[in-house]
Amino acid sequence: MWTVIYIAPTKSMAEKYQQALAEEGILVQLRAVGSNPQVNTHSMEILVPESEAEEAHEILTHIIGG
Q1: Span 4-27, pLDDT tens digits
Q2: Could you tell me the pTM of the whole model?
Q3: Phi, psi of 6 (to 5 degrees)
Q4: CATH number of 2-65
Q5: For the chain, which residues make up each domain, given as ranges?
């Protein structure tokens, strides 16, 4: 089961976080929030497998805070 660990305010930011998590070996999916997923200004959910959620959240917190 996939779990949302963060909602990024833009698609480009979500893709940046997706790449960083993938480099750490975490499986990542992005899902648009809103009616038109093609628009870059929509928020994006960052999802990871439930078993990796805690580790992914720690990595993401470090990236955002650092």
Answers
A1: 999 999 999 999 999 999 999 999
A2: 0.86
A3: -165, 150
A4: 3.30.70.260
A5: 2-65
